Amino acid sequence: MAEPNRHTKAAVVPSFSAMFRRVLYQRGFSVALLLLSPSLPSTEAFVPSSSASWTSSCRHVNNADQKWARTITAVPASNGNSEDYEFSTPDFNDADSITRRRLVLSLLASTSFAPLAANANSASTTSTVANSIITPPAAEAAAATTTPIIILKPPLDKRTYETFTLPNGLKVLLCSDPASTTAAVAMNVHVGACSDPVEIPGLAHFCEHMLFLGTERYPEEDSFSKFLSSNGGSNNAFTDSEKTVYYFEFDGSIDNRLSEALLRFGSFFSGPLFTESATGRELNAIDSENSKNLQNDIFRLYELEKDRVNSEHPYSKFFTGNKSTLLEGTKRQGINLRQQLVKFYESYYSANQMSLAIVAPQPIPQLQKYVSEAFGTIPNRDVNPPEDKWAFRISPYGKSGLMPAQKTIAEIVPIQELRQVTITWPIVFSSKEEREAFRLNKPDYFVSWLLGHEGVGSLLSYLKDKGWANSLGASDNANLSDFITFEVTVELTNKGLEAIDDVCEAIFSYVRMMRESPIPDSVFDDNLQLDELEWRYTTKGQPGSYVQSLVTSMDQYPPSLYVAGPRRLGLKESEETLLSSSDPRTSFKTKEQRDIIKLACTDLITRLTVDNSFLTVFSKTFEGKTSNVEKWYGTQFNNRPIPMSTLMRWQNSVPAGSIGLAYPRKSPFIPSEQGLRVKKKPKQSDPKALSFEEKIKPIPPPTVIRDDGDDGRWTAYFKQDERFGKPKAFLIFQLLTGELYSTPLQASLASLYQQCAADKLNEYTYDALLAGLTYDLQVMPRGVRLTFGGYNDKLKNFATYVSSKLARDLDDVLPSNEEEFERYKDNLLRALSAFKVKPPYAHAIYYSSLAQVPRSFQYTNEQLVAALKGTTLPQLVDYVKSLWASGKGEALIQGNYDKKEALDIINTIDKTLSFKTITPDQYPARLKPLPLPVIPPGEKPTRLSISEPNKSDNNAASHITLQSLGKSERDHVLIEILAAIIEEPFYDNLRTKQQLGYIVSSGVKAVDQSRTLIVIVQSNVAPAEKITSSMIKFLDGVSETLLNPLTSIDIELFVKGLVDKRLEPDKQLAVEVTRNWSEIASGRFQYDRLQSEVGALLAITKQDIVDFWDQLYVKERRMLVSEIVPKLGPTSKEPALSSGYSGGVPAAVLGIDDIDQLRANGESSITS
After folding, report:
1. What contacts 744, CB < 8 A, 6 or more positions away?
2. Which of 19, 125, 158, 351 is most deeply packed, by most CB within 10 A?
């Protein structure tokens, strides 16, 4: 679950490479050491999601956190209590937002670089192409001319685009999508935290917060949020080093509503109020935001990275801000904070330094009219780009920083059990022209691809063979106007930690190979071919992330490349001309085009020297041995020069060939042109809006193509794609069997098997991954599941090989010796230990979730740790042998196959797995939610009070669950309507008015067919008891303050928002596959569920809502409070471990040791 923060006032985002993020999306199914993720999501890139998934309509403040976190799969500490699948295919629309969340690479599962254009959404066309080399300022002038510009877009994108510049200098990109009902809007203001006044760190971030709190035209502080909430919308913002991006999306199908939304949004930039009262209150939000990051290793590392920068360079500043810098610091200096806010806004918020992108259903002329009305009044102060004051003037490195950079090593004590080493090379540009050429040629992509490769002969394979590494990643990190940093990070084993010099020498050996042995042309040709393959079949994704990508791209590329720029390679046809065609390529147009990129790569490689590098090492072994403390986060560290003997050794590193390093071989998985033939063309290809009658018509479901009976081997389902027109497919095979997850030991062995199998198969599967093929292995309470996806040409052979290795050739996927076994075991133990340093709100959610899931479906973190410590290699071998021995097979084949091919695939996999059948009485039980105790009217709710396990975290948290056991569509939509009604007022009351904390959220959660309404707050200023009482007080007033005043129009708007979300056409095959498999795996087979829920929504009345709330909150109140009490910070009495609870309705506060009894009671009630 991603961090459940609210929509406005997002965090300052530490740097995170776009290319690296793209790879994580591709690698979403891999087992990783998710030691830094604030939560453990599992819904990306064909990864099974928890059936108890978060379905909140709330906004996520740390949008950047969400994007990177979603892409990685946790080592399953949550026990995989899933019957449903969620294949939310990665959305690469923000692919060129280069400075996002800086991810510590030990989170990676052996990640390297996938094709650049992977699953990007794209844009469009107008008329003639501008194909000369145009830098962004020149591009702006070009956009203002009357010559139409063709915006290169993927062939399958049928939307209409237009770009122009308003008279006030605002750059605009419009995308008309009549087939959608969603509108998304983003504004990029070209100023970020680098422009903070030296004496007021965090001012740019604070300004971003303040723009949401009232404008001259709409003075009510929460009016924009209320407006969006009532129209099924959300909004957010983030402050980066050199930009601040504001965005929102909502139901844009009603013209006057879209017009009003744009007027409201436009007023942010033409007339914000910056009221004294809001300024004072919002300081608390900034401080709470900073407080929640203090125990986050990402932020801690990020700040130390900036400490190595020249103190005169603006990147060295503290970007987030807190009360110390914004309140106490300004008072001490005699500075009027509000006056400085206004001055900052008036100095930098100028129309000529802004870019606006809109995706909406309306036609272009209508959108142009709305834009002129809403944004034409933004003042043009005719200011220069902020970086003109420092870029190419102040050296980012080499002068005095808080700590030296080149040829030094920083030894850092992490919060979590991290072990990693990073080599960093600053790549400093001498001019704007050099910077722009680097962006167009993308040499960092190719060099990263080589260093981060994971196939035969790769750097990672060598380091694994030596027992030094678990994973490796290469990427650019900091990415500013005048420099980037290029990095290679290795996640180390214990043995590798003792051999850091050897690990670094291997890296320099690979760099030496690239410098001395020309990179083969096949590397560039294969990457272009794979990149263009994705471009060829890219379709639109989520509008919200797409517009963020577009406004970022508008700052970095000429208009013709607003879409293609971050999503394609080979952007220059010659030194003088840009790429001019949207047509997919199978090779470079000319040798010159390839040579331009090769020369750029050569130039980058020459900068990757020993003398230009510095090291960063993360390890708990440094604890108690450091002599420095970082100012803002309190990070303990040493910084020392690297010995000259070590530097000389690296400069004379061993030849790559002598240690088995080599350039990657050509991928055998690239599909042939014949294999890309689509068997059934989509019935509708025109980008027109569907009528309600067309939308409400159920999509044809899969059909049974093999049924061996209840006692037989397989029940197989099939559907040939005729909606999306891509040569892709998904294959899902599930073997239902019991006794695989019946104890914590078995759950631990399952996790070990998944991790070691992924690792041992990696050299083979990595090449497949680069060619768009993925697989996922999951052992769950009800059996084992294999999922394959990608281009169907070679998918069957890929699935057969992997299945054979997993089920038959066990020696190839299990540890070969005790040392290797202990390495996997160590990885999992460290991943589980990361639970203790998750944020308090995540702990509150976790304990609340435990109370609603049977013990055999989810074991506690403590149970898993204890069981894992006692596991042995013989136990693992025996467990895996039994895993595939017997069961009942279920399968879904969906995509670009015909029925005959689907049956052949099932027969092939059946022979490969070769399991014995079981009888229906041996089928494993399905997940059933545990009912929470009913709280009699007037009684206090059941309350869990648990100590925060991280002694250094001073935040308290409280999470309230209201459980509904109703299984009907009516029950499900009513609780969603209530969540929509409550969301905005809850946030406004507890976050904006009471200022209880930065993380304030509400939403709906599902466990099987039950639904729970949940609210949560994390605070560094209030104890858990106060948070709880404030939330309950709000809930007590819902009926009187929120439900009774509802008008029929209010209800219609809430209903319409939920209806539109359900009837929004699927954008990708993966979405439909997810839905179909969920129905098959759950045994419900209600393929028309969305349409049935729409029918229920349309019948809802105000009285229905009132009655449902009365039943949920008064008559049958199944309510659970989960409080996390810190040992520091807001004062609270330390919770007892147990209250002695033995059953029934708890009469007292429960402790952590009472949860097991609470779950046992729930299990008893299910049985009875």
Report:
1. 859, 863, 864, 866, 867
2. 351
Q: How many CB atoms lie within 10 A of CB 536?
A: 19
Tokens found for residue 1031 = 């939330």
- Per-residue burial over 317-356, b if 16 or more Cβ lie within 10 Å, else e, is bbbbbbbebbbebbeeeeeebeebbbebbeebbbbbbbbb
- Which uninterrupted H or E stretch holds 714? strand 714-720
d(CA 927, CA 932): 15
What is the number of other CB atoms lying within 10 angstroms of the CB of residue 763?
17
Using DSSP's 3-state secondary structure scheme, residue 70 falls into helix
* Whole-number pLDDT of residue 52: 27
pLDDT, residue 71, reads: 22
Over 550-604, what HEC string results? HHHHHCCCCHHHCCCCCCCCCCECCCCEECCCCCCCCCCCCHHHHHHHHHHHHHH
Query: Which value, in Å, is the radius of gyration of the alpha carbons in the chain?
Result: 28
- Calculate ∠ Cα 825-829-834, nearest 5°: 150
| Mean pLDDT, 10 residues at a time, the chain of 1168 residues | 36 44 27 27 24 26 26 29 34 29 29 27 33 38 55 94 97 95 96 97 97 95 91 93 97 94 97 93 92 94 95 96 95 96 97 98 97 97 97 88 84 95 97 97 97 97 97 95 97 97 98 97 96 93 94 96 97 95 94 96 97 96 96 96 96 97 94 93 72 89 96 97 95 92 95 96 95 95 96 97 95 95 95 94 96 94 96 96 94 97 97 94 93 90 94 94 96 96 94 91 94 96 94 96 95 93 91 96 94 95 97 95 89 84 79 93 86
Give dist(CA 1109, CA 127) in Å, integer.
Answer: 55
DSSP3 helix / strand / coil % (the chain, rounded to 5): 40, 20, 40
- Do residues 110 and 474 touch, judged by C-beta distance below 8 A? no
CB atoms within 10 A of CB 715: 18
Tokens of 513: 């190979």
Select from 177, 209, 206, 183 the least CA-distant residue to 193: 206
The H or E element containing residue 1049 is: helix 1048-1063
Per-residue pLDDT, 403: 78
DSSP per-residue codes, 387-404: GGGTTTTS-SSSS-BSS-
pLDDT at 14: 59
> How many angstroms separate the CA atoms of 108 and 111, rounded?
6
End-to-end CA distance of the chain: 32
Q: Which residues pair with 640 in a beta bridge?
A: 409
Residue-level pLDDT at 1139: 87
Residues 6 or more apart whose Cβ sits within 8 Å of residue 251: 181, 182, 183, 231, 232, 233, 257, 1056, 1057, 1060
**Phi (first) and psi of residue 411, to 5 degrees:** -110, 115
CA 68 vs CA 24, 334, 777, 894: distances in Å: 7, 41, 22, 28
Output the pTM of the full model: 0.87
What is the predicted pLDDT for the residue at 684? 64
Cα 496 to Cα 188, 299, 608, distances in angstroms? 43, 25, 22
Number of other residues whose CB lies within 10 A of the CB of residue 389: 12
Question: Rounded to an integer, what distance in angstroms lies between the CA atom of residue 314 and that of residue 413?
Answer: 26
Nearby residues of 990 by Cβ (< 8 Å), 6 or more positions away: 996, 997, 1000, 1017, 1030, 1031, 1034
Q: Which pLDDT score is estimated for 440?
A: 97
Distance CA 403, CA 416 (A): 23
